[in-house]
Write a sequence for this structure.
């Protein structure tokens, strides 16, 4: 349990911390749009300055993209070490007209702050900083060494944090990596995510005639790239959605019975799914519940199809080309490179006659599985239970956080995926928000974790 | 054979007629773009004025769209009657930067006139007007009654000419309808087209979730509209391109042996096809030559696919919707409405689970078959042979000219598809052109046809 003084500090500074968070949120640090490069640098300086003021040794690394902040408290070898990861950059704000208030002018309503980055990830990063501040300002001795790695390219797919981690594994050595970029299970139930799906993202390009042809003049004489692409994509999955790429399921770790039991207890129903998604029905391979498919079964989804004419009404052409983007979400122990290769081989094998087919592997991410039984996991669960005042559950996540795999590989330490947001917080969408209660509870949880991890 | 005086007039007025055609071509009568409405009206007036000057009774009908011109010479019951159809409107000119000279400033180079509408269809319409002028200016008695129906909505899919024809069948009564909107077989071989394909144009719309979903968060839980659409489209055709819609081939008239022989004599090879299209190979159902498939076999082609993300790189979504545009080119005696209905029924039957599927029939056109053995057909062939100085061939066309079906139905007269352009004249593309030799030969052919048809 953390010192009472530390928690009291957090309680008595709630409004001040919200005001500071709003200053942070006012900086439009959109990393993927070059016109915001100065703002992105300003957001990095905001974080660096706070950490410097708390007495940390702060390094601002320039690896060719946006600044990467690495910081650490005094390192005492007799203490355990926690490394906190987060990002200060934010998603673009389009479509702007769907925002109820300007994305970079934070508005607080009903104890919710609305702004781009409120939840993803400025608000969550800030909980850790404020937790550390509480120890330092109250003069309470830190139970652990604390390290931060805060990047500015998460939303732009930048490489800086990967390069830095590979080159500085010794400096970043730690007993656990804390990543707050997932979500609570729901409004009343905190959770630790112990598995992330990986990803193999593919693009299939089909080339036919040298230009769009008149479908009357040349219909019946050449292969149509649009039809050929549909044939390929249709052959990727069977009628119930199982992927047909050979070997796809070979390395899939089956769910353990206690995992299935845990998922079942969460009470997620197809009615909830339909309400959340607007889909007419749940759909997927038999033998698994919807939550099991969502969290623990690999997928193969079309992300985009483009061919020929997409405007209003009719245009009678045989398109010159057709393209599909297909993502496969992978689960432990599938290997993204192996799957991508199997996908390429399969598509080339089934490619219809009369067209040229290319398959490119755009990018990959490794799936993540964190053992549920460890001292650090127990410390995380206890901290959440105290910080949020509710019993936490183990959850998994269908999305990918590619850096987590790199942390595991390079730092050989367990990752605590401790999310304080909600899945309904509109990250990547208009009207992104963060519940202030979750902000405050998150800061308490981080402070408690520093104490619990030391035990 | 037409009077020597008439043909001599055409020969001695070649340059003057080209100059007048250029005046016609300078009018940017783009019917589908409302900013050109005044110009389109001006082009109608240009045609109407010429016909009035030749002494015809001219009617400019306003049926809610662009003006429709109907004109006729004195009608003498002892003469046969030819009805000439054409259009004075033109296609849009995008992409403008691919034109070597401005589309509405005609340029003549190497006896070729370059301008939008040069071939499609102002140049061809003008051959008939100039043929008639030759008779009238030379005071040679017309061998036939001549009627014109010249519309301004062909490139915009307007209804005026259909409505007018249905309401004025008696006035338009004739022994043959002459349509110059197809092409010569090639530069050295004239031809009469005796069959056009019909069309059933369909749009398949697949609806899944209420919005694009994160493919990680919801992958594996709902049907993906992109995958579902691919499944549907793939089921439309077999591996060699035969359409799988039940009953699709039931009413297809098999080619007669003399048609197959005629096609074979034309010497069209897959090498020519590959050169024309840039496709890597010829493709299509076995048992038919490429030309047989092009001209006489029904097709089923994707014209467009749209779903989810089509931009650069990766976006990880389950798209909310997916749409395909599919055109079926039909041959005699397929019925477009029957085929469209069979298509709808089939798609609804094979629609995958977990999505809502809609199929709309955007528009139809009936296939056309003109008997090759008739007095009018013989007159047409003779006129072409004399006018172009080369033996003409019978050809078919994979494209559709929907008004031809309406003419056949309402006027019960044979249609002579007498094209003077070339398939390489870039109609609907930048640098549209018309060979002046074909313009002059076309005018001679039209003049000769007026005499031959009277026999």
């Amino acid at each position: 349990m953390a010192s009472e003084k530390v928690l009291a500090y957090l309680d008595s500074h709630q409004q001040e911390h919200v005001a500071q968070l709003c200053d942070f949120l006012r900086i439009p640090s959109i990393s993927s749009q070059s016109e915001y490069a100065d703002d992105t640098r300003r957001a990095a300086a905001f974080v660096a300055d706070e950490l410097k003021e708390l007495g940390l040794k702060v390094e601002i690394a320039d690896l060719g993209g946006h600044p990467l902040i690495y910081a650490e408290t005094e390192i005492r070898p007799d203490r355990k070490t926690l490394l906190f990861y987060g990002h200060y950059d934010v998603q673009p704000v389009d479509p702007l007209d769907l925002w109820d208030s300007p994305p970079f002018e934070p508005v607080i309503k009903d104890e919710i702050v609305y702004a781009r980055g409120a939840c993803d990830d400025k608000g969550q990063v800030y909980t850790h900083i404020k937790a550390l501040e509480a120890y330092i300002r109250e003069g309470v001795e830190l139970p652990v060494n604390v390290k931060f790695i805060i990047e500015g390219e998460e939303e732009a797919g930048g490489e800086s944090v990967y390069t830095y981690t590979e080159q500085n594994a010794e400096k970043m050595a730690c007993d656990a990596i804390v990543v707050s970029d997932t979500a609570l299970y729901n409004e009343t139930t905190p959770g630790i995510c112990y598995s992330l799906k990986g990803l193999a993202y593919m693009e299939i390009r089909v080339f036919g005639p040298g230009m769009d042809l008149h479908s009357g003049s040349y219909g019946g004489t050449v292969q149509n790239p649009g039809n050929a692409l549909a044939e390929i994509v249709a052959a990727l999955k069977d009628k119930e959605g199982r992927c047909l790429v050979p070997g796809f399921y070979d390395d899939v770790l089956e769910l353990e019975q206690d995992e299935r039991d845990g998922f079942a207890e969460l009470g997620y129903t197809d009615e909830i799914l339909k309400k959340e998604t607007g889909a007419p029905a749940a759909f997927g391979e038999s033998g698994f519940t919807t939550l099991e498919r969502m969290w623990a079964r690999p997928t193969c989804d079309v992300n985009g199809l483009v061919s020929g004419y997409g405007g209003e009404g009719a245009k009678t052409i045989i398109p010159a080309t057709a393209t599909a983007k297909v993502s496969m979400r992978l689960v432990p122990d599938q290997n993204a490179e192996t799957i991508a290769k199997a996908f390429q081989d399969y598509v080339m094998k089934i490619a219809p006659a009369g067209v040229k087919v290319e398959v490119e592997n755009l990018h990959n991410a490794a799936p993540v599985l964190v053992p549920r039984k460890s001292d650090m996991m127990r410390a995380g669960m206890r901290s959440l239970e105290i910080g949020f005042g509710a019993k936490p559950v183990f959850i998994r996540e269908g999305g990918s956080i590619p850096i987590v795999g790199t942390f595991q590989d390079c730092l050989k330490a367990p990752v605590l995926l401790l999310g304080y947001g909600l899945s309904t917080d509109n990250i990547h969408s208009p009207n992104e928000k963060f519940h202030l209660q979750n902000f405050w509870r998150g800061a308490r949880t981080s402070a408690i974790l520093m104490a619990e991890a030391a035990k």
Summary: The longest strand of chain B covers residues 198-207. Chain B touches chain A through 88 residues (CB under 8 Å).
